[in-house]
Specification:
Number of strands: 10
CATH class: Mainly Beta
Radius of gyration: 18 Å
Helix content: under 10%
Shape: elongated
Largest sheet: 5 strands, antiparallel
CATH topology: Immunoglobulin-like
Strand order of the largest sheet: 1-4-5-10-9
Strand content: over 45%
Order of helices and strands: EEEEEEEEEE
CATH architecture: Sandwich
Length: about 120
């Protein structure tokens, strides 16, 4: 499912993202234009993933209508609650051409107990 981008008046944009559930993992993909790899921070817990990414150049948006507004965006920020628990210490991420892909292995639900 792809979500639409939204913003707040704190200078942060919520990026476009997609959560793909696979058999053994979740693949979470973020679209982060105007961001360099060294400006991306990924934090995970057993049921969330959060991305904070500073833009290399701020974006200014102006709205001229019945109400005049001017907003400057400087970073992307998004926290996602995952549908199942994951193993955060085994997470990995790749960033290339403004696209961040995070692999989050699902937590094992069933453990085989040896019988002696």
């Amino acid at each position: 499912m792809i979500e639409k981008a939204t913003w707040g008046y704190d200078g942060n944009l919520e990026p476009l993202y997609e959560v793909e559930e696979r058999e053994e993992e979740f693949l979470v993909t973020f679209d982060l234009p105007r961001v360099r790899r060294e400006d991306v921070e990924v934090n995970t817990t057993k049921d969330t993933v959060e991305v904070v990414a500073r833009m290399s150049r701020a974006i200014c948006w102006e709205h001229w209508g019945s109400v005049q507004r001017k907003i400057t965006f400087q970073a992307f920020r998004k926290r996602i609650r995952l549908p199942e628990q994951v193993e955060p210490e085994k997470a990995s991420a790749i960033f290339k051409n403004g696209i961040l892909q995070i692999n989050l292995p699902k937590a094992r639900r069933k453990v085989v107990v040896p019988i002696t």
